[in-house]
Amino acid sequence: MRHLLSAADLSLDDALLVLDTATELATVTDRSVKKLPTLRGRTVVNLFFEDSTRTRISFEVAAKRLSADVINFAAKGSSVSKGESLKDTALTLEAMGADAVVVRHHASGAPHRLATAGWIGGSVVNAGDGTHEHPTQALLDAYTLRRHLRGGSGDLAGLRVAIVGDILHSRVARSNVLLLRTLGAEVTLVAPPTLMPFGVETWPCATGFDLDDALDGLDAVMMLRVQAERMHAAYFPSTAEYSRRYGIDARRLALMPEHAIVLHPGPMNRGMEISADVADSERAVMVEQVANGVSVRMAVLYLLLGGQKEGSP
Amino acid sequence: MSLVLRGVRPYGEEAVDLVVADGLIVEVAPAGTGDGRVLDADGLVALPGFVDLHTHLREPGREDAETVLSGSQAAALGGFTSVHAMANTDPVADTAGVVEQVWRLGQAAGLVDVRPVGAVTVGLGGERMAELGAMADCAAAVRVFSDDGKCVHDAVLMRRALEYVKAFDGVVAQHAQEPRLTEGAQMNEGALSGRLGLAGWPAVAEEAIIARDVLLAQHVGSRLQVGHVSTAGSVEVIRWAKGRGVDVTAEVTPHHLLLTEDLVASYDPVYKVNPPLRTAEDVAALRAALADGTIDAIATDHAPHPHEDKDCEWGAAAMGMLGLQTALGVAIETMVEPGLLSWRQLADRMSVTPARIGRVSTQGHDLVVGAVANITVIDPSARTVVEPTALASRSRNTPYAGRTLPGRVLHTLYAGTPTVLDGALA
């Protein structure tokens, strides 16, 4: 595998290899010296056209723990003229000898374009593109699910997961549906009909409009952030109504089995899609998701840049 | 001095000599008997010169993308003898001054009859009617009015425009796109747009405007031209309207006859166009509608864009495709070779009917004695690989790069004068 553009790029074996590699690499984090020499002399560029402190930092920490040189390139909106920015930036990075480009972009397909337009020769890792995909988020979610619910190894066969909220605009949901399905989980998307993507019936998952109905028998529920701009675009009448119908609170938490966990890709809107008491409960694993993100991104960079797939890190 | 198209087959029928003098066809003689300077056209197909109802020549304002001259060259090489230059230039062609400028540039280029299209509303703003009468009365004699690129979405304004142009036998060519339903739209709305995470451009946004407009046109007794029809539903609406006697005509682009939305999965902006590429079902419906006359004409929507506006990520890219030099090949591949249109019917869809819709009296004539000698001579057996850098356009945004298209324009005669000989500008 040369690039990671979509969760659909990952076969079951690929996905398990990333998760297993991440499990091994996670032990590095527990050491006093949190560093491996694996990617010494390699250059990883974090190319972020959108603000994303947590994802950028996560990739930065991951690359640094593998001893890669890290360049953070924030090409924010207005300072770069439209269109030219991506190509010219790519050519610049290519000239600097980037081995991998981790790209976050507001346009769906921008990482795909970066990987296929012939502008650069290095690996491209999609760190979130528009409303398309965010494959490393799905990997860290799968890793978290596996750790909590499957003892930290193997696939996710039979696991029941609901993804709740703004599916229409969510790259997290798209990547998770693809990856969790590959790993054998059963995914149900829950959203008001206005926030369901067109053609969602062709996706490899179930859908529902009623959160209470969906919670019964779940192993995990993944709450999605509702972007502020959606709140004013007639997708739903009011934040209060959204919260009542699609937010998770203590009552709804009790509708799930005891072992079920709550995930959220962050940042959370407390009181909107998730109540404060659920966010702070022991069954919410958001802080752990962040830590797992580093391990998973280490694994992705290691596998894309480290060369051989076999052998231990 | 007269010119003889020796052994040419008008409409692919019996070989004759077409003799041209003083800008007219003066004789249709038995093959080998015509007298004059001979252009060998043995076995080639002659059609009346093509008339494009929908061309973006970009001048004034975006001469980096195309000029009236470069667009005229592309048109002539594509077998066209007339093009309608869309109004979304900078400044917008919303005054007699601008349309006259474009018209004069066309005259100066001298390769095709450049018919300027006038904007319906001032600055394409969709709020105030432009001085349509002044544009109609000036030297450019505008008959087609369009805010193309933008929809005349205000129902009252559309009604008034439809009514107003009756005074000079004009027609409003609508860009049917309900604006609110297509805010930020990037591609056809369907399962694929959902998967690719690209904002959808639903078919209903086109169909709803067409439905409204055919009813308006009937109500006020005006004629209506529907631009770049792209969906099966639009075809049904137009068919229904024609059945009710509404004076509506419609065009389809070559790319909507051939290409489908799955090309968008490459995220290559060369496939970004408005209206967007649709589904295979839509393509089939459009071909059938063009064959049965529900759709009246092929129009290219030739839309040049400079390289930097396509060599970027999908979301930042401009919408549009080149079309003038590939229209015939696509038409042959999608309509003639499958047997959906005869050569004579193709001449109707690419010349006779568009000339009638645009009220261009010197174009779209049958190949008979006395007709203005606007003639396209085609080698139907040729196959051409589309090479973007070989196109006459200043831009390179053809979606057919590397594709082999059937047929080749060998000669084009514009008012009796060769503009293209042996596939090159004369």
Poorly predicted tracts of residues of chain B: none
Shape of chain A: globular
Determine the most extensive contact between two protein chains: A-B, 28 and 26 residues
Strand residue content of chain B = 15-25%
What's the alpha carbon Rg of chain A, rounded to whole Å? 19 Å
* Main sheet summary of chain A: 5 strands, parallel
User: Can you count the helices of chain A?
Assistant: 11
Please summarize the sheet with the most strands of chain B.
Answer: 9 strands, mixed
Structural commentary:
The complex is a heterodimer of chains A (313) and B (426). Chain A contains 11 helices and 9 strands. With 313 residues, chain A is of the alpha/beta class. Chain A folds into 2 domains: 7-133 and 290-305, Rossmann fold (3-Layer(aba) Sandwich), CATH 3.40.50.1370; 135-286, Aspartate/ornithine carbamoyltransferase (Rossmann fold), CATH 3.40.50.1370. In chain A, helix 6 (171-182) links the parallel strand 5 (160-164) and strand 6. The longest helix of chain A has 20 residues, at 286-305. Chain A starts with 11 loop residues before the first helix and ends in an 8-residue tail after the last helix. The mean pLDDT of chain B is 97. With 426 residues, chain B is α/β, with parallel strands linked by helices. In chain B, strand 2 and strand 3 form a beta hairpin. In chain B, strands 1, 2, 3, 4, 5, 16, 17, 18 and 19 form a 9-stranded mixed β-sheet that branches. Chain B has 11 helices and 19 strands. In chain B, helix 4 (155-164) crosses helix 6 (203-220), helix 6 (203-220) packs parallel to helix 7 and helix 7 (232-243) runs parallel beside helix 9. Chain B folds into 2 domains: 3-45 and 372-425, Urease, subunit C, domain 1, CATH 2.30.40.10; 49-357, Alpha-Beta Barrel (TIM Barrel), CATH 3.20.20.140. The interface between A and B is medium-sized, with 28 and 26 residues.
